[in-house]
Amino acid sequence: MTTSPARTGGASRSRRGRRTFLGATATAALTSFALLAACSGPPKDDAGGVTDVKLSASTPQARGEIDSFTWAVYAEPPTLDYTVAFDYPQNTVLSNVCESLMRWTPGLTTEPGLARQASNPDPTTWVYDLRPGVRFHDGKEMTADDVVFSLDRQRNPDNAAAWAQVFQNVASIDKSGPLQVTVKLNKPDSQFPQYMATAAGVVASKAAVEAAGKDYGTTGGLGCTGPFQLGTWNKGQSIELDRFDGYWGTKAKAKKTVFRVLTDPSARTNALLSGEVDGGYLIPTESYARLSGSGAGTLYFGEGLSTVNLNVTNMQGPLGDLRVRQALSLALDRSGFVKAGLGGAGTTTNSLTTRAAWAAAPEGTRKSAFEGLPPSGQDIEKAKALVKEAGAGGKTLTVATSSIGQDVSLLATAVQAAGTRIGLDIRLKTIAPNAFTALFTDPQAREGIDMFPLTYYDSITDPLDLLTNFKTGAYMNFAGYSDPEYDRLVEQAGGVYPAEQRMEIAAKLQRKASEQLLWIPVAEWPTALFMNKRITGAPTTISYMYYPWAADVGAVR
Questions:
Q1: Which of 345, 352, 396, 462 has the smallest C-beta neighbourhood within 10 Å, fewest atoms?
Q2: Alpha-carbon distance 531 to 73, whole Å?
Q3: What are the residues facing 181 on neighbouring strands?
C-alpha cells in the first residue's frame, strides 16, 4: 500500500454532506459534550431527541389538488445546471424540473424514465429507446439529439461536471434512431446504467441550453421535461416552480411549489411549526422532539442510504499513521453523538456502507461484508496506547466545521473531545456554510485541514457507490490513498453486471477499506421529513434527490 497526492477531476456522486459548525461556542459545546459523555450519559429526550424511530415506507397518498405549497431548504443552490447538481439543495429542487433516462423510485429501485426501456445487447453496449411525445417546457418534442447533447455535456471537461466520473468508461454516445440513443463503453460498467437514474442521466433541450450559454442554470428556464418548470427565482430568498400542464406523465397535484431558503436551523423549525412553510427534508436534528410533539404535523423517517463519517483529507501528518486513525475511532463516543447530534434518529456503525445498500446481495454475502470490521465501541485505554505507540502525543490535527445544524457540528465537537482524552491536540476550523461545499471540489480549500465531517448518501442502491471513493485518483479520495489490489477489485466489481456476483467482490472491498479507516464511520442516518396537516404525499426515502417528489404532494383530503 502506498499513498499519492489526491487528484482532481472525475466526479462527486455523493458529496455530500450536511455542513454544520460550532463557531464561537465551540469551547463551551465541547465541554458540555464531554461532560455528557463522561458523566451523565446521553442528553435526555427533552434536549431535542426522539426515542421511537420507525422507518416509514411512504406517507399517505394525497387526495386532491392544491394551489401551492411551500418547502424549506437549508441553502440556496448556486446553480440548477444538472451537470453540477451534486448536493441536497440543488437536487431537491432540480428533481422536479429535470428528468433522467431512468428513474429512481421511492422504493429505491430503478424503473424507466425518459427512456421507455434500456437494453444491454452486449456487455459494452447500452441502448436507450426514448418515450415518444415527451415535450420540453417550451413545447418542443424531445429527440435523440437532445439526449446525446445532454449526456455529452457531462463528459465535456470544460463544464467541470460533477458527474464526469460516471462517464469514465464511455467510448461514444450516438443517435441510433429518431428516438434511440446507443452508448458504447470501453469495457463493461455495472455502475453506468444505474447512474442514468440520477442527475448524470438528465436530458435537457439542446436549443435551450445553447441559447442560455454561460447563464444556463442561473437565470431563465432549464429546458427540461419534468412535472414542474422553473418559475420566479428570488435570489437569496426563494425559488418557485410552476406546474407544467404539458407533462407526459401524471400531472402534479400542486399548481405551484415554493422553496424558501432558510439557512438558520431555528428559523427553519419555527417556520415549520407556524405554517409559514408546509414541509421540508433535512430537518434540524435538535428539532426532532419539538416537531414530533407539536401537533402541527408529522415527522417521518425513511430509508436514507446515508452514513455519517469523518473524512481524512491529509495523510502527510499524524493521520498518515493508521494507529492514529484507529485511536480516534476507538475514542469516539458514537452513542453519545447519535443521541445528541442526530436527535436519537440513527444507529451507531462501524461500516462505511449502510445495510440497505446491500439489498441485492445474498444473505451470506451481506454477512461477510459486515463481519470483522473495526469495533465501534469506545476503548480509551487502547486508544491512548495507540497514540503513544505512534509517537503522536500532543500532535495537532485540524477539523473543519460549519454552522448549519448541530448534527455535524457536534460530531466535530465529539472528535475534539475524543482527541483530548487520548493525548491529541484537535482544533476546529470554522468554514462559512456557503464555502463548505468547496471542500469537496477544491484542493486549496482543504489545505491545512486534516479531517472534516461528511454525511455521505448513496445515489444508487449499490455499495460500490461509496466504496469506489477509495480507488486511486477517485474524486472523493481526498486522502490520496492508493492500493493496487484495491483498485483491481474496484475494476473487477465494476465490470460485473449480475448483482449477486458483484456484491461478493464489494464485500472484500468493504472489509479492506474499513481496515484503513480513510473515512471513520460513525452512524447510519435515516431521511427525516416533516409535513404539516395541510399536505401529504412526499416520499420518506432519499429518492427525493432524483425522483419528482413534489408532483405527489397534494391535499390531505
A1: 396
A2: 13
A3: 128, 175
Strand, helix or coil at 25? helix
Amino acid, single-letter form, for residue 287: S
pLDDT score, position 31: 31
List the Cα angle 444/450/456 in 5-degree steps. 85
Domain boundaries, the chain: 2-49+305-524
Identify the residue whose cell numbers are 436534528. 285
Q: How far apart are CA 217 and CA 78, in angstroms?
A: 9
Question: Is residue 415 packed enough to be buried (19+ CB in 10 Å), middle (13-18) or exposed (0-12)?
Answer: buried
Identify the CA nearest to 251 among candidates 554, 551, 555: 551
pLDDT value of residue 32: 33
Q: Which of 455, 475, 474, 465 is nearest to 19 (CA)?
A: 455
Closest among 328, 315, 309 to 454, alpha carbons compared: 309
Distance (Å, whole) CA 178 – CA 172:
17
CATH number of 2-49+305-524: 3.10.105.10
For 254, the 3-state DSSP assignment is strand
pLDDT digits (tens, 9 = 90+) for 61-86: 999 999 999 999 999 999 999 999 98
Q: Helix, strand or coil for residue 474?
A: coil
Residue 66 pairs with which residues in a beta bridge? 254
Instruction: Specify whether the CB–CB gap between 287 and 265 falls below 8 A.
Output: yes
> Given phi > 0 = left and psi -120 to 50 = alpha, else beta, which region is 139?
left
The C-alpha cell that represents 1 in the structure block:
500500500
- Taking each helix axis as running N to C, give the angle between helix 322-331 and helix 380-389, from 0 to 180 degrees, rounded to the nearest 10: 160
Residue 39 DSSP label: I
Instruction: Give residue 506's pLDDT.
Output: 97
Q: Are 167 and 151 in contact (CB under 8 A)?
A: yes
Helix axes 499-516, 484-494, angle to 10 degrees: 160
| Whole-number Å distance between alpha carbons of 81 and 78 | 9
Q: What is the pLDDT of residues 229-240, one digit of tens each?
A: 999 999 999 999
Alpha-carbon span 355 to 374, nearest angstrom: 16
- Give me the DSSP letters along 303-362: EEEEEEEEEE--SSSGGGSHHHHHHHHHH--HHHHHHHHSTT-SEE-S-SS-GGGGTTS-
d(CA 360, CA 164): 26
| Closest to 241 measured CA to CA, from 433, 88, 80 | 80
For residue 179, the surrounding DSSP H or E stretch is none
Residues in the chain with pLDDT < 70?
1-48, 404-405, 434
Please identify which residue in the block is written with the cell numbers 433535512.
282
Determine the pLDDT at residue 48.
57
pLDDT at 432: 81
Look at the pTM and tell me if it is higher than 0.85: yes
Strands (E), 178-324: 180-185, 202-203, 228-234, 238-243, 254-261, 279-281, 297-312
- Beta strand residue intervals within 254-391, DSSP E: 254-261, 279-281, 297-312, 347-348
532 membership: H or E segment, kind and range: strand 519-532
